[in-house]
Amino acid sequence: MDRTxxxxxxxxxxxxxxxxxxxSRNAADADDLTQATIERALxxxxxxxPGTRLDSWTYRIMRNLWIDTARARSRRADREAPExxxxxxxxxxxxxxxxAIDLKRIMAAMARLPDEQxxxxxxxxxxxxxxxxxxxxxxxPIGTVSSRLxxxxxxxxxxxxxx
Amino acid sequence: MSDDEKFFAWLDGELGQAEAxxxxxxxxxxxxxxxxxxQHRALAGALRDAFVPVLAAPIPERLQxxxxxxxxxxxxxxxxxxxxxxxxxxxxxxxxxxxxxxxxGTLISRxxxxxxxxxxxxxxxxxxxxxxxxxQLASVPSGDVRIGITFRDRAGAICRSFTAAAASGLACRxxxxxxxxxxxxxxxxxxxxxxxxxxxxxxxAALVDSTMAGEPFDATAERAARERGxx
Lengths: 163, 231
Fold this sequence. Notes:
Structural class of chain B: alpha+beta
Helix content of chain A: over 70%
Structural class of chain A: mainly alpha
Radius of gyration of chain A: 17 Å
Order of helices and strands of chain B: HHHHHHHEEHEEEEHHEH
CATH architecture of the largest domain in chain A: Orthogonal Bundle
Strand content of chain B: 15-25%
Strand content of chain A: under 5%
Number of strands of chain B: 7
Order of helices and strands of chain A: HHHHHHHH
Largest interface: A-B, 46 and 40 residues
CATH topology of the largest domain in chain A: Arc Repressor Mutant, subunit A
Number of strands of chain A: 0
Largest sheet of chain A: none
Shape of chain A: globular
Number of helices of chain A: 8
Strand order of the largest sheet of chain B: 6-5-4-3-7
Shape of chain B: globular
Oligomer: heterodimer
CATH superfamily of the largest domain in chain A: Winged helix-like DNA-binding domain superfamily/Winged helix DNA-binding domain
Largest sheet of chain B: 5 strands, antiparallel
């Protein structure tokens, strides 16, 4: 029984790292966040209801930890946006919407989204959750999820379209 | 819900039938909306692709051990044991790096009869693997190869994931053959029970995730696809 919980958590690791990467925007912080999430999940395992989705439950832990520990720091980082990333975004001379959107370019654009839009874009467009699931996971009204998603993806498209 | 929100909810498959039909009609009549839909589908696809390297990267040992805190006890014997067998915790990473390289040496037959053959620099399923991909349904497992999920890639080709004794992988239809898109070694000594409990190899899961367009086939669609010769 216990083994199953750990195995399921272990199977989630690649996806948890992906979401952590979307939240924290760099590999080292992403792994710290993933580790803290795993530790919290193991300590809180009695609160998980078998039969419900372990992924949503664990993502929720990760997102709350991210808010607790990293948001203040990342806000500071936002104000001092790294020169390199901003500069890289204008480089590609091709139209942004030909078959292959430059992957570096899209990651840089993603990193420039405000936190509250980025987490929703990541959960719905990358992780594949539904609006309702995300609304429950983040304790937000579904209308807020939907409007932030519109703003986030519209900003992303504009950024990858910049010349 | 604003018109914008409704449009995107439609794009994400979040609307009920009636509302979806309404938006669909609107989009069909408006070239600007059609272009917007196309751009946002491309954007979402590119965003998923951009994260594939993160998804497919080897999991650091510290995260593997965090999941199994038993490996961290302050007990010399246990600590030593866990250091002696780090591979057990890193099998995902091992599978990823072993992937095609090692298998090229072991699975690809130089003579006839092996499960994978190379033609003009591409790998194709052969023998038992080819037969299983052609004939087997996920709901009716038989023989040494188990079929996992069946789906279409972005170019419309049918793809099927499979698990055999020593490896798991993904093959997609290429003419009348199955081209092997990726194959991942099972970690040495890992019991098949453990593998079933652990689910799909993470590297394979990442490959499937980046290849699949839409949803996996259900049993009916899988059977129908077989009847049409996997076209």
